[in-house]
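Teaching note: in complex prediction, the entire set of molecules is handled at once rather than each chain in isolation. The prompt given to students was simply: 'Predict the structure of this complex.' The entities are:
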Amino acid sequence: MAAALRRASVVAAAALALVGLWELYRWIWTSAGWTWPFVVDKTSMPHVWTIFRAFGQPTQVNQPALITILFHKSVFTGKEALVGFAVGAVVGFAIGIVLAHSRLLQRGFLPYIVASQTIPILAIAPMVVVWVNPKLPGPLQGWGAVAVIASYLTFFPVTINTLRGLRSADPRALELMRTYAASRWTILWKLRVPASLPYVFAALKLAATASVVGAIIGELPSGLQDGLGGAIINFNQYYSFEPQELWATNVVAAALGILFFVAVVAAERIVVRRAPENVA
Amino acid sequence: MSVVEIKGVTKTFARGNVTALENIELELQHGEFVSLIGPSGCGKSTLLRVIGDLTPPTAGSVTVNGKPARQARSDGDYGIVFQDSVLFDWRTVAKNIALPLEMLGWSRDRRRARVEEMLDLVELRNFADHHPWQLSGGMQQRVSIARALSFEPALLLMDEPFGALDEMTRERLNLELLSIWEKLGSTVVFVTHSISEAVFLSTRVVVMSPRPGRIAGVVDIDLPFPRTVETREDPRFFALVTQVRELLRKRGEHLLPEEAAELL
Amino acid sequence: MKQVREWLPALVVFAIVIAAWEGSIAAFHIQQFLLPRPSAIVRSFWTERHSLWPAGWTTFKEALGGFFIGSGLGIAVATVVGRFRGVGTALMPIAIAANAVPIIAFAPIAGAWFGEVSPHSKMAIAAVLCFLPVMVNTLRGLSSANPRQIELMRSYAASELEIWRRVRVPTALPFVFTALKVASVLAMIGAIVGEYFGGAFNALGVLINSDAQVFDFVTAWAGILVASILGLSLYGAVAGTERLVVKWAADTRDS
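The expected output is the structure of the full assembly:
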């Protein structure tokens, strides 16, 4: 309990320090008139309080406050990210298990799985949207394609770490299982999968952030207006007049990413009670 | 001349309020091979670390070669060998052995010549360019010994160096260590769990007891040198082993049951 | 011979996938604009080479600049912070939280700061993307030295600087290279995403995006191919350097 309290105060102190640094930087650069690396003014770096005040104000007349709008948009993006995360994690885990059982398949597919990550996802996003959307049932229209993009970013770390984790099982324990005449299936579920869990969770932590990134990136070219990606494009167009709105959107996007990460950390605490710490 | 002089050394650890060592008095003469033996928690490893100035004593003083322990460490007066070989993965066998020589600023040629000598000494000449992970546990420990001896320190500190090895490798390395010791004439402090190993190797065995760590007794080992495989079958060997065991057991009355079991 | 056997399965998979791709387009009459044939992509890759490669080079320079700036800063900050144990442990949770932030969302702001069309805004995004993983992993690597090895160095009366040079840095190198490999991929992605919010007309991200908007997916795929080749070569260069530098490790070939 004390530890949790201390951690919370560290986080609060860090947030305060960040705000302080921001305002200090602003103050030094504006009063000294420095223009490197960029000109500091109320457009490039709005005051922190301007950004936070923007949350409470409507962006247009007769509209709800920005925070309400952003809340709905982050729920939408969160839905895409969550579905993408779930699909990517399950697919990634399954691929990891299949590959772990065959060196031949590993040699055949692993190079492409690694290479697939160098494909700039933003570039194929529009094609994925055009391609996937017509095949989706009605309720998934639009956001389903974005979830697919999010899952594409999620599956890779999960596959790689599942593979690594399944291989990490203690060879003596494997032999012990053999003396019980355990089947491959039993060895997998009773030994290899538990051994892989710390690795899998390390990957899921990466994947949690990646799924939010995927959802935001996926929204950019798909023309969806209901999520944070759409909001970023939208507010970016008015940046020179209302920079605080884009900043506020980014604060919410950051919070969403951290929320996903924290959720995975919490799940890990529950599932892997006695796992060794920091397995990369 | 005494190589190591320990006077009234006490070590308490603030955390847990443990007295690891209490008022230890011990003197090592040049060329001695002294084993420290005792159950876990008797402070034998702590004592070794105090001699090496890796842990400062809470009270008392340690002199090595007539100098304070800190000075002796800066002068490179001792070599140390740990239970795990603590080799540097990124260095080859030869470069691992050369590490202390580099630290002492030896020239390249001089280093190379000495490393060759040491490789011969521990019989690893063909493995000079191997990396540690390519060697067996016993070979790794031999590299670690070669590294400790490479700069001919007057004193060799060994913290359960063969504890992780199998019995056969251990007995072979015991013989190797003795022949190296006889050849170089250095002074050795050797921490161990094994009574027979202590008796076989040493000129003196220091028996320690735990809570607080104290010297329970000292047994002079008068077995003749050179010691060989036959030494282990000598009745005198058995008598000395029994003597050390008795000392441990007498103190063992104060031990927790599992600690006593470990010694028997 | 062994090399051939190592790579044979990958080549077979490649052939099968390409054949299946070509075949299924013919068999199921998939419209060309949705998923072009591999042969069409390769053809476009060749005919458009005079616009694709200069565009690729523009983007690659942005990615490279961001990679070096971000990774360099990451290593530098970790080195400084690693000297102070307390600061490192205090900073770790903050760095981890920052790592969970979708940095990509800040791409338009980089545009506002460093100029929408300027390559500097893309470098900035790529640099920020590279910075965090490199910083976190370097810090982790510097602090995961074996305490026994440090003790051994103390027994040689080694200075802190010498311990750092001979123990901490070699221990950290595999960690650093793992992060650099991640960063090499992120740099390319960062540059292309940065270009999405405006960039020189001859940049790869702009090119792919405008082709996709007019449903010229063949050229878009050819552009993606260029991006992947460039990304892979940066990754390969880092992995190759790793093999040269971290040649002692038994398991660097793992991933």
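Point out the following to students. Confidence is low (pLDDT under 50) at residues 251-255 of chain C. The longest helix of chain C spans residues 160-196.
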